């Protein structure tokens, strides 16, 4: 854990995933099944994913709350939007886009309400 002065930093991060807009629909036979995978860059093994939105397509409504513990004040949240592969033997899930959200500027300020641009 990282220290700030003489104390150890620890906090709770609440993530509200509400929608993804204008996602490139790479599914050739129907609207793609979409999910969001979230993790802190310093700890990629601890991942929180939203449920899969079947037929989410290009504009997906998610509406899901996720909560994780943060132990570094300079943390960066990585949100990956993915398409679920229904043919796991032939094709892995596909990455549709990524957003990086720096946490440090908002530590201790309460709520941060902002949309983030997903980059392909």
Features:
120 residues; mainly beta; Immunoglobulin-like; 4-stranded antiparallel β-sheet; 8 strands; 47% strand; elongated
Give a short summary of the structure.
The protein is mainly β and 120 residues long.
Secondary-structure map:
Layout: E1 3-4, E2 7-8, E3 11-20, E4 34-40, E5 43-49, E6 60-70, E7 76-83, E8 94-102
Antiparallel strand pairs: 1-2, 3-6, 4-5, 4-7, 7-8
Word description of this protein:
- It is a single chain.
- The chain has a 4-stranded antiparallel β-sheet with strand order 5-4-7-8, with no helix packed on it.
- A hairpin with a 2-residue loop joins strand 4 and strand 5 (43-49).
- Helices cover 0% and strands 47% of the residues.
- It is elongated.
- With 120 residues, the chain is mainly β.
- The chain has a single domain (3-104), classed as Immunoglobulin-like.
- It contains no helices and 8 strands.
Largest sheet: 4 strands, antiparallel
SS class: mainly beta
Cα-atom radius of gyration: 16 Å
Number of strands: 8
State the oligomer: single chain
Helicity, as a percent range: under 10%
What is the level 1 CATH name? Mainly Beta
Strand order, largest beta sheet:
5-4-7-8
The number of helical elements comes to 0
* CATH-defined architecture: Sandwich
InterPro entries: C2_domain_sf
